[in-house]
Design a protein that fits this description.
CATH architecture of the largest domain: Orthogonal Bundle
Strand order of the largest sheet: 1-4-7-10-13
CATH topology of the largest domain: serine acetyltransferase, domain 1
Radius of gyration: 24 Å
Order of helices and strands: HHHHHHHEEEEEEEEEEEEEE
Largest sheet: 5 strands, parallel
Number of domains: 2
Shape: globular
CATH class of the largest domain: Mainly Alpha
Helix content: 40-55%
Distance between the termini: 68 Å
Structural class: alpha/beta
Number of helices: 7
Number of strands: 14
Length: about 300
């Protein structure tokens, strides 16, 4: 390697090693293991194989061996969870020399394992709601195997439970894995009831403080977002409820924007492309203004 090349490389290595430029402080350095994207992906895929045996993971030709297959997977899942939860807990305490996170990570992993049967029940309600709402679906199995909305909601159910258990960082990673794969963006903090379905799904955004009731159905392009941010005295955004509440049996059609801490009353239907920033009473039907049909002659109106 030429001397000039070596000098250029060394100069830039020295510059990148320093962290004293003001702008560099926005990229903090870490000296403890961070959560692994590859291992978190494996955790999600293990859970997919545990909750949907035969659809994901290896083929199970004999149902009598299911207990064995699940046992192997849950043991692997437990060990991965302990490790990754520990790394997640250290993420925000990297300068804490008296790290006591290891025991907490073990307890949290076990607590999550205890939640898996309930996660399976919740996801089964989402599958039924999706199948019942889509005449194009030929079977529950097709919904499980093919539908991106089920993939996204599945990840959300996992992420939300980990968030409830106090795990930092990892829930957001799991949600963003689904976002990257499906185009459906659900913050792990959103509270979503039973029998939830997303039709098509591309471009759906559900904010952190959303509360969604049971039997709610939304279509592609729907945004359940915030209308404005309130700041503290230092100019930082306050993390306060700022996203909508959708009560039971609400349907929201494509590309609707429902913004702010407002309530959409139960049994309401929200039409496509509407913009809503005020609460809507129960059993409402909100549609955009009908298009005005007219004819133009000899270039008039152009």
């Amino acid at each position: 390697m030429k001397t000039e090349t070596i000098e250029i490389l060394q100069k830039n290595i020295i510059l990148l090693t320093k962290n004293d430029l003001p702008e560099y402080t926005f990229i903090p350095q870490h000296y403890k293991p961070l959560p692994s994207l590859l291992k978190l992906h494996e955790i999600v895929e293990l859970l997919r194989a545990i909750i949907f045996p035969g659809y994901f993971g290896e083929v199970i030709e004999n149902s009598n061996t299911l207990e064995f297959h699940l046992g192997v997977k849950i043991e692997r899942l437990y060990n991965l969870l302990k490790e990754q939860i520990l790394n997640g807990m250290r993420f925000n305490t990297m300068n804490n020399k008296n790290d006591s996170s290891k025991g907490n990570a073990t307890d949290t992993a076990l607590s999550f394992i205890n939640k898996i049967p309930e996660l399976k029940r919740l996801v089964s309600t989402d599958i039924k709601a999706t199948f019942d709402g889509d005449p194009a679906a030929l079977s529950y199995g097709e919904v499980i195997f093919c539908y991106p909305s089920i993939r996204a909601v599945f990840n959300h159910r996992i992420a939300h439970e980990l968030l409830n258990l106090g795990v930092p960082v990892i829930p957001r990673v799991i949600s963003e894995l689904a976002h990257s794969e499906t185009g459906i963006d659900i913050h792990p903090g959103a509270q979503i009831g039973e029998y939830f379905s997303i039709d098509h799904g591309t471009g759906v955004v559900i904010g952190e403080t959303c509360i969604i009731g049971n039997h709610v159905r939304i279509f592609q392009g729907v945004t359940l977002g915030a209308i404005r941010l309130r700041m503290d005295d230092n100019g930082h955004p306050l993390n306060i409820p700022r996203h909508p509440i959708l009560e039971d049996n609400v349907v929201v059609y494509a590309n609707a924007n429902i913004l702010g801490r407002i309530t959409i009353g139960r049994d309401s239907t929200i039409g496509g492309n509407v913009w809503i920033t005020t609460s809507v009473p129960a059993s409402s039907r909100i549609l955009q203004q009908k298009a005005i049909v007219s004819s133009f002659y000899d270039g008039l109106g152009i």
